[in-house]
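Can anyone check this?
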Amino acid sequence: MWSEIDNFVDALCYFMSVVIGRRWLFSWQVYRGPDRTYRLTGLTAKSDYQVRVNAVRHTRDNEGAAITLTGPFSANVPFTTPALARSINPKNSGSTDSDSPSYIRSLMSEQTWMFVLILIAFMFFAIVVAFIAKQIVD
């Protein structure tokens, strides 16, 4: 929950952004609306997150044209999600949640995932360039 901004007469809504990790390289707007509370769902266990909120006021100028006034973001609020308790998978006795992709992803840092994605993109680009070069040479 965040503090309410004086609403005056104009329409007011709040934007909430979330980022995985400690840096604001990529953020996602997860909420846009008039409520002052929002519950984040679908978070990965044992992961660092940060959230911030800003208010947006919708008003009109003297000629009646729509104006959107965006306020500053709140201070970043960092938090870490707790670890999930391991359970036994009934389909395969002896198998734990550690077999699931989300558990494996939580073991790798955000930087590692970015490195893997960039590496795959570079490899794909190199293959395409090599194919085009071969077509030009032949």
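Reply from J.R.: I decoded it. Confidence is low (pLDDT under 50) at residues 92-101.
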